[in-house]
Amino acid sequence: NLPDEAEIELSDVSSFQFDSTSSYFVFVKSDKDAKSTGLYYVDLNAKFALPKKADGAESYHIANLTWNEKKTVLAYTIGKERYDGKPDSNQLRLWNPKENKIDTLLTIEKLKAGLVIPNTNTFRWTEDGNRLFFGTKVASDTAEYYDKITYNDSNYYNVDTIRKQTQLDMWHVKDPRIKTHQKVW
């Protein structure tokens, strides 16, 4: 605040956004002890004040902050933390700063079976601000996992150990795509 020469220092901020009119500043605080984790906002038109919490709780991940420039609402994802520290079953939410109201637009129960809203996503509003486009993905990863084998003197020449990590990729001249493209597809 330039007239009062006051300032606020924000720590543990993982992402932030200003709305298009520079009326609101929102940020996600990812605190290490998870006590103050959440979505916070500052009303830049009001008298200089501390940030206020809009959403979030302990062990929740918030990401993909995207303002709707026409309607001044914020879209974001929120998901509870799993046992491995990653977000699980993200929800799509809208926050209206004028009313300080949160609407849950989409949960995992409303999606087609087997799909989830990923934490790493790209949100895009239409020009008229009536629709939001975002990505979904398959809930379970179908990739095969192999145990990482560390080779040492005792197993370096062991045929069984070598076979555990061996893969065979065969390609035929009549295949429509080469093997590297097949893996991507």
Verbal overview:
The structure is a single chain. With 185 residues, this protein is mainly β. Helix content is 6%, strand content 35%. It has two helices and twelve strands, in the order ββββββββββββαα. The chain has helices spanning 159-164, 179-184, and strands at residues 13-18, 24-29, 38-43, 52-55, 60-68, 73-81, 87-96, 101-106, 115-116, 124-125, 132-133, 137-138. The strands form four sheets. It has a four-stranded antiparallel beta sheet with strand order 1-2-3-4, with no helix packed on it. It has a four-stranded antiparallel beta sheet with strand order 5-6-7-8, with no helix packed on it. The chain has a two-stranded antiparallel sheet with strand order 9-12. It is elongated. The mean pLDDT is 82.
Find the structural class using helix and strand composition: mainly beta
Low-confidence stretches: none
Percent in strands: 25-35%
Arrangement of strands in the largest sheet: 1-2-3-4
Distance N to C terminus: 53 Å
Order of helices and strands: EEEEEEEEEEEEHH
Estimate the global geometry from the Cα principal axes.
elongated
Mean pLDDT: 82
Helical content stands at under 10%
Let me know the number of strands.
12
How is the biggest beta sheet arranged?
4 strands, antiparallel
Q: How many helical stretches?
A: 2
Computed Rg: 23 Å
